[in-house]
Amino acid sequence: MKHIAILSTSVRKDRKSHRVSLYFKHFIEKNQLASCEIVDLQQYNFPIFEERLRHMTDPPEEVLAFAGKMAKAQGIIVVSPEYNGGYPASLKNVLDLLSGEWKGKPTGIVTVSNGPFGGALLLPSLVFSLWKKGVWVVPARYHVPAVTEAFTEEGMPANQEVTDKRTTAFLESLQWCMEANSRMTTTE
């Protein structure tokens, strides 16, 4: 069974995007699509890094643990809130921290906001940063507008049927890329 890391990127108090991370974890597990875990940046409390992992002489244990989780995943779902038209510094921090762990990794982008556009404004900057790291950004996008009304704190959608339908299409795209990547990287 393939493994997906759900990267919950907001470290703010009373964050709303984490609701969507909880939903994805529940949906993936309920439908037995893959093994998965939420990799919550709020739990790491990373400082601003001065150097990439590969150049650190004595990397902190939490950095190694985080890098291991990203390396282990065959696919990643990045759940990012929109902050003033961009993505959070916590996400930029970990993108810059790692190198090989991101390269070629099929990654789906989920954008979240309390406004009507669902975080769509952050896409150009995030996609560019991921592209520079060699990430395989899957073609499907998943926008969540009005997140406070769309999901409960526990990650339950207000409109289960419509949300599940959108999620199925998004995850099919991610899974297709994961399978293709697996076939391309398998050596005999």
From TrEMBL:
Protein's UniProt keywords contain Oxidoreductase: yes
Keywords: Oxidoreductase
Pfam families xref list: FMN_red (PF03358)
GO molecular function: oxidoreductase activity
The UniProt record lists the keyword Disulfide bond: no
Enzyme Commission designation: 1.-.-.-
Residue ranges occupied by any NADPH-dependent FMN reductase-like domain in the UniProt entry: 4-142
Protein name: NAD(P)H-dependent oxidoreductase
Natural source organism: Rhodocytophaga aerolata
